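Course assignment 3, question 2. Fill in each field.
Student: A.L.
Task: Predict the tertiary structure for the chain below.
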Amino acid sequence: MKLLRYGEMERERAGLLDDQGRIRALPAALGDLAGDRLTPQGLAEIAALDPATLPVVEGNPRLGSCVARPGKFVCIGLNYRAHAAESNLPIPAEPVVFGKWSSAVVGPNDDVEIPRGSEKTDWEVELGVVIGTRGRYLTEAEALSHVAGYCVVHDVSEREFQLERGGTWDKGKGCDTFGPTGPWLVTVDEVGDPQDLRLWLEVDGKRYQDSSTADMIFSVAELVAYVSQFCTLEPGDIISTGTPEGVGLGQKPPVYLRAGQMVRLGIDKLGEQTQRMVAAG
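Answer field:
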């Protein structure tokens, strides 16, 4: 299934994408795409519905984040071999973990704000993993059974805030609007091997990133198991699994985003995002 949320910001409703690419409204009684709705039992209730019986959503509504109110937005750094190389950094011995604030989460096609004082706002296309089953101290063999589905995440990053201002990476990663998520959550049965997905990103039509999740240093299963050693993973949590080579920081000379530019990105089977860059008010 391809599950989504549509409508005005903070008033989104849950829906699904049918085989003809039309949005169908899910019954309001099922609630939002969050928490228990993303468990195996919750997804089974949706899967039992006949999409043809659900109302078609007319027009071209705004899409919200495909997961409502994620309890945790855990991100992984330096998880592609070629990206570590372009960053002139060694392959990490363990996953590099940081977080995004909840105010970073926006819809896949919403505007992205360049923060006040920013000179180094950068792009990063990433595979997002949505947790569906609660788990702690998971083994790698158990990990994928705790995944509800996958989505596109744009891990927008401010490199000066991240790398030159002291402290942790988080303040360069969690700025408002720095986590476009969606367009839809694709359940695991439709994705297959998460280590065999092409992902790409363009700025104003120029392709900068074009790679595969096969280049990950730590696989999805390894990452889910690893993060679960430090916190309990809950349904609706998101783990963003790192970006491939081709970020702005890695260009020679570096290239950064400016207001008015358009960014388009996508992952095989998971859809595309398009964002306009705007100056923060």
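Instructor remarks: The CA atoms of residues 14 and 29 lie 10 Å apart. The mean pLDDT is 97.
Grade: pending
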